[in-house]
Amino acid sequence: MDVTTEVRARRREKPQLSCHPCRKRKVRCDRIWPCSNCSSRGQGSLCPFPNPSVTAPPGPRRTIGIPHLQDHINQQHGKTVTDSTQQSPLTPATGPTPPSSSGSTLSVAETGTGHTSLSSSFSSSPCSSNAGSIRIKQSGASYVSSAHWTVVLANIAELRDFVEREIDEIESQAPGDDILATAVDLRLLYSGCPPGLTLSSVLKCLPPRPIVDRLVSRFLTSSKWAPHRGKFLREYEEFWSDPPAALIVWVGLLYTVMSLSTKYQLCLFDTNGAFSPARHRPDTLQQQTREFQNTIELYLEKAVQCLFLGRYTEGGPYVVESLTLYFIVEVFLCTDINVGLYTLVGVLVQLAISDGYHRDAKHFPSISRFEAEMRRRTWALILQIDSNISSHLGLPRRVLESQFDTAEPRSLHDTDFDDSTTELPPPRPETEVIAALYTRTKLRLISIGNRVTDLLTPPSPYTYADARNLIRQLDAVHDAFPASLKWQGFASSIAVPSQLTIQRIWLEMCVLRGKLALMSKFLLAPRRQTWRICAIALVCIDAATKTLEFQHFLDEETWVDGLLYQSRWNITATFMNDFLLVASILCFNLQITPPHGEEQQHQQPRDGPGSDSRETGTDSGHDTAETFKDNERIRKLLRMSHPNLTLTLSSQGCRHPAGVVWG
Asked: Start and end of every Zn(2)-C6 fungal-type domain (predicted)?
């Protein structure tokens, strides 16, 4: 070793006391992080020291303004490329020490062109997770995807604290309580908010507590859309201890619960003139029904006003839950499912996505186990709403399966966990009939149904093999139904609750609907392969016959004193769509296979579900404008194909509330 080498070796052993930028500039460093030279250049957060013991002086932490953000990015970009071969990763120190740059360095090979190392560094995502980022604040959760600039910068260690500080400062400078200050460009979304609206004016419309207690009790005991009962009851007691201190959106949730519970109470009345409570007289039915409807409208109006006051478009606690229940009430009150509801689904879905409901909470350790499970339940309900409304209107879904990874909710009772739970218990066995088990089964069936819809809607036509493949998947899901949710025949309905019977029928009809939708196309194709057409016709006729049997059963058992009378409000437009699909397919089959001979033309249809559908086709409880038009089309088709067929289609009034309800 020569003398020059020895001198250089001894110099490297000397501790470096100045920061790296000052050492490169060959200027004097005050050796306090961040040093005055870097701070004066707006680069205080990019002032790394090799000595981890260097700490910041006491006093307020220096912050850097947004105008310097581009300088920070440029500086960091240049540092990671030019210094990656010169500096080893810095060891972070405890306390307010310089942030570490490890993990954000882009390695470039020292030999060759460097293309191999550069391309290999992009073989995996630079982010620690592709799930994005959720900020948990007092005002709620805020989600951004992994492509958002804040997430990208947060993965650069030197900029992570800077980004967090700037976001907090921006949020702390938000305007006051005037909703027009933040929603001036969203007048369409806030146009229903009256001027001078306050929480106190909303609370004035709240009935006495005994009435609210009864409404809440009915909702919690009869609704499958109820929030976690234990938590809701605790919040309910806290609300009555100091109503003006309550969160405004939670008050809106309470009004929505009251509205839905009042709707349940209205469902006890039969709209044909008979009703369940014996203490009421028939001559007061119309007046009492009108009073119920006015009360529902009042509660719903206050729920909407609470959403306005809570700036629902910005998300936050209880916003998605309150908006979901509000949507269900609106569907109950609608006579026809229209595009307005489809638009409202879009608002609901976008708010849920902005709060991160579409990403499973396992990606975000800051979310508790309890909150994670409740978010899964809420997202499951949103998926059901989206699928049912879009399929009813024949429009694309708002949520695609490639856009979310939220897990199914566990089969748990509300008593199995609460907000103090640190680890969720194992799911209940499938022999127990609980709401979450039915939800899980529906989600699996809806997933296959969405694939059926996707196959039916692309520009290029699907093949017979594609249809058979999906039918096999439908059969596999059907065979995997829990024993407690499998349809076991009409006779078995005597010994089970009416709600469970309707759930079993709904699951069966989803399978039949998928088969009919897949195979009906091939009935229209040229008949070149007789054996295939026969197989398709058999599948369609079998599914149609079973659907008509369910229709006949539902029609018979939803009358007064029927097996399903107490749950008749669940027999809604979802079922009606299935019946109309079956009627359309059978009409087409009649058209392409006309009866032969004069004797068959005058022969009356046989008794049974098929013939009963002539009388029950419009008597399923949905005497709406949409249903009336559909029934008229079916009448016309039947007359065209079989002029001598006796038609006894009739509309005997609406026996069930209109709308789409999910089993």
From this structure: 18-49
CB atoms within 10 A of CB 8: 9
CA-wise closest residue to 589 among 628, 650, 548: 548
Place of tokens 């991160």: 356
Q: Is 223 exposed, middle or buried (CB count within 10 Å of its CB: 0-12, 13-18, 19+)?
A: middle
- Is the omega angle on the peptide bond into residue 34 within 30 degrees of 0, that is, cis? yes
Q: How far is CA 631 from CA 517, 520, 583, 646, in A?
A: 19, 19, 9, 15
pLDDT per residue over 352-405, tens digit each?
999 999 999 998 888 999 999 999 999 999 999 999 898 888 888 999 988 999
Residue that has been written with the tokens 């990208």 in this structure: 152
Closest residue by Cα to residue 398 from 379, 373, 377: 379
Residue 19 and residue 38: Cα distance in Å, rounded? 9
Structure tokens of 364? 């975000």
Closest CA to 353 of 410, 409, 408, 404: 404
Residues 649 and 643: their CA atoms lie apart, in Å, by: 15
Look at the chain and count its residues: 663
Amino acid residing at 509: M
- Dump pLDDT digits (tens) for 477-511: 999 999 999 998 888 888 888 889 989 999 999 99
Measure the CA–CA gap between 595 and 313, rounded to whole angstroms.
Answer: 59
- As given in the structure block, the two tokens for residue 530 are 């007789």
